[in-house]
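Course assignment 3, question 2. Fill in each field.
Student: A.L.
Task: Predict the tertiary structure for the chain below.
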Amino acid sequence: MKIVNFCIIFLVIVLPTTLASCNTKKNNYQLVAPEGKLSLHIRLIDNKLNYQISQQGEEKIGLSVLEIMADAAVTIIDADEMESDSTWKPVWGQQSTIRDNYRQLQLNIDIEGVKGVFVARVYNEGVAFRFVLDEGEKPDAVTLKCGYAFSKQSNYYFPKGETEPLGPLHHKEINDFLQQKKNKISLPLVVESNESFMALLESDLYAASGISPMRLYAEDVEGEMVSVNRVKVDHKKWMSPWRVILFGDTAGELVVNTVPINLATPCQLENTDWIKPGKTLWDWRVHGYTAPDGFVYGIDNESYYRFIDFAAETGVDYFLIDDAWYKHVTKGHFELSDKLALQAVIDYAAKKDVQLMLYYDRRHGEYGDDALFPYYQSLGMKGIKYGFMGSKVGFTREAIQKSAASHLLIDFHDSPVPFTGIRRTYPNAITREYCHAQQDSRRAFTPETFIKMALINAITGPLDMNNGNFDLNGINAGLRQKGPRKPHSYLSTVCSEAARTLVIFSGLVCIPDAPEAYAAKADLFEFIQKMPVGRWDESHVLHAKIGEYISTARRHDREWFIGSVYCQKGGALDIHLDFLEEGQDYEITYYEDTEETHCKTNPEAYRVRKGKVKKGDVVKAIMAPGGGHCMWIKPRI
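Answer field:
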């Protein structure tokens, strides 16, 4: 597969201006963000690299160590500073144009005979560090380590697999948590300190070979954390991933922060025309649903034809068939289910101009990845949902590359490596389930869990969360084969479900309910149907409080889509329409809870109404307990 440096050559204004060049040894360096709010100090103390970060004069991270070889003495040979300001266009994403503006310090260093480079970048919204070891003899294994000295009054939040993210926790509570067997801190670690927020994660794992994912630990000293990567190195030039620290005045600002994707290796695909973000129907959670005409959905051709018909009628791009399409796998061979004729489904989808995706995992046997992706391509598939692969960096990287070679989108199921920023490098990495997908393990998460994941897990990139159920009464009554084991445990409203499909950023929005459930509420489904998934020009989190509420606005061309979700307390958020164009009148459609709506007792009550708005108006988005609110705003012609 031929590779190039960029997916598209974009409007680029690069200013590699050398601000300073020093050929004499120095022990102290200061780097200030382009807008001056963040300040980074790099110091060599007792032959060890240390850093310190201040925001508008307030210390955010105290003196902390940076190292790539434990206890090895570092010598700074020389240093260069520069500023870069460029603009590039992603293939798809939360923004159609991304500015990459930073100041950089590069230190040429010697680590007890091992030559290398330490690079630090300061953006207006974050700081990042990377080590590069030159070719030549190096230790067989090294440890990338970064310390973080936070305020002792800090609160911490982080994901916890298929359960509610943890937090707010104090430092001692994290230590207690880590003492329990198999417990770990998953990325990102969100830090709330003095009414502002930081997030710790890594970017550009793609560029680092022989590495394990970043792990976080709490030190014995209160407020001090440390991250490590175990690395096997060889004699070739080796580059670490970027250590990333994001900054935001609110938790919501971290979700739309562009620093991690700016740090990622530019696109490695020569042609990206075949990569199309969009929406997909999915069969897995519909099995057992009885349609109004008495038809019962299952693993059969008629069920799949109904999905395909609805997708074709409503403009849904894809239909995803889960693992029921095969029974057993041997090398180079799938034993297909005897419940359906797969080729007939493929032919029917082609006739209806609906693209198909197929699930795969190794629990029923291993096909062999070298042959797997070409086989999917030979079936005419548009993508693969890959499950149960584990958190292996090398495997994940190769699966993304091999799927790209066969022009397949890839959606990682279960608990994959976050691989933050990979959608820039390989934009066929369309989404991944780095969260608790709704109803996973046949459990339903609460509104509070959703809001936490939307403000914590989502910092790492696109999520496959499977929001958007409309038949909430049927699901809660246990009328699905794969619904929640506990009846009436699915706490949401249909307006919240619609809003969630917008709030959670993804290149593939998987809507998991039956076609008839959406058709029965066609006026509400309109909000999902009209969303241009993954083709946003700009995105903003207007309101955010971890565990309580979130409100997200996304623009495509001149149209705005706004989704808000509230916890079980219910409440209202003032949506200021200051982002609309001056002098332009707009038509607005509201999709909202009613006075009777409640996530426990009346989840399917909603209303749709229209109105007119203009720049400067304020909409009070009123949400029921566990409810939501949606708006579609378009210019009046």
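Instructor remarks: Residues 392 and 417 are 7 Å apart (CA to CA). The chain is about 15% helix and 40% strand.
Grade: pending
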